[in-house]
Fold these 4 entries.
Entry 1:
Amino acid sequence: MLLLDTDVMIDILRGHPPAVAWLGTVPTEVVALPGYVAMELIQGCRDQQEQRELLIELQRYTVLWPQPEVCDRALDLYTRFYLSHGLGLLDSRIGQLALALGLPLYTFNEKHYRAIPGLQLSQPYVR
């Protein structure tokens, strides 16, 4: 399973050629999004039409939500690294979900996640 961050999904949704080409090499049934990524994408919609189109597109992907104990660990991460490293609220949850699933997070936002110990990051294509 491939776990995608928001920036990668934005590239895919905007039709960025390297992102679309990369996605074409993997079966979509193995591509998953943290639920928080889906929410960030919805937050970026400018109107209801855009939101409807996004929701249709999101049906192609598995959306994953953390269990309560994963949220507890994300809270610990956030508490430890918010002040010292500027770890974001959603980034702590997305990163901890990837850790809990034992999956790398496909992202270009290495700066957002570098504070999370043990988190494996992967850049899926060249930007």
Note: Strands lie at 2-4, 31-34, 62-64, 105-106, 121-122.
Entry 2:
Amino acid sequence: MRNVYLAKSVDGKLSLGSELNKALFQQDLKEHEGKTYRIERVIPKRSNSQNRMYWAYLNIIEYETGNNANDLHELFKRTLLPPKFITVMGKEIKIPKSTTELTKLEFGEYLDKIGAETGVPVPDPRELENFIPNY
């Protein structure tokens, strides 16, 4: 069974949060003496609320420009994001980077680029609450 423990860096040390989490991790260490653990820094990806806001924004741009929101999505990711290179059957090909791969910060910068490109300002998410279901 694979256990996942989330920890934060606090004063240069890993903190497991609660005493219970610390005890569970200590028990896991005892049960798996000599085993290797992987520690990875978590980089927050674009959130679901950012995704909903993004598609609402694309719909606003669609209304302003007459261009389809899905087409706008393809245009923006192909022109405003760096390409991604993958190897398929031994051949390297260039594909557009997916917006799902962006961190929260990168996604915010991406939205700012769209605003600069289109002249349609990025809406305040609080203004969209009445327009996006489950926002």
Note: The beta strands are 8-10, 13-15, 83-88, 91-96.
Entry 3:
Amino acid sequence: MDKENLGQPLDLLEIWNNLPFPKFLGYEVKSCAEGRCIIELPVNPNVIGPFNVVHGGVFYSLCEVSTFLAAATVLPGDKVSVTNDINISVLKFVSGGTLLVEAWVLKSGKRSCFVEARITDDSGQPVAVARASKMIISKPSPS
């Protein structure tokens, strides 16, 4: 991934990739630049629910992360986006293979950003789609 294209300080992805949550789920950010983000998730035991399919919360998490990172690529370094609203539709169940998540910024202004995401399976079939509205805020100070 080209960290220089993030539009954010280079440490954003380093911080993100070192958090326990991405490591637990097992996803990898494949690219993130120019209002777009692509994430890949091999289906693994950590994401499987009680009926041997990917848990719906995993779809939500992937869409939340991908829309956040896509938005980050178009914001000044002193700004971040937080989700106001996200709507996700799960279109089919998945129990194996690899999920590909693609997110792209539809429109970004001074106070808000609108982003869509799509998750597909190994065959390229849509698994879930999402639309998120994000509020743009000043980056909080690290604690």
Note: The longest helix spans residues 56-72.
Entry 4:
Amino acid sequence: MSKKYRKGIFVVVYTLDKDNSPLYLVLKRKLHWSGYEFPKGGKNFLESNLHAVKRELKEETGLIPTKVHNHRISGRYKYKKELSDREGVIGQTYILFSARVNKEKIKLDEREHFSSDWLPFEKAHFRLTHSNQKDCLRIVNIWVKQRY
């Protein structure tokens, strides 16, 4: 079987606090690796990017976005090891989206994540595990600050 990249999406999820400062959602990962991330996932065959964003957000957090923005930033990364549930897949591509949500109770997919936190930019940036996600958070934070 040929080695390939799985198509996917990154979703930087934010809400605004009382003074319109953004808070970002970070999730503590437990499936495949341990660390912090924001919601992300693979796209299903023939699924639109927008549908994938809404589906992954609902599956991983129980949240429904009030606003979704495609930042038209893409990238890819290799997995550190072969994943048993992704035979022949060596990594994932992604397109960056942001999703504004109302701050509600998070309903984690407990197979994938241990916990979640709403954090201001600096703390969220520090907590994220991977540099590509830190870069994506920085891009979204600049975009959010220009709008609110």
Note: The mean pLDDT is 89.
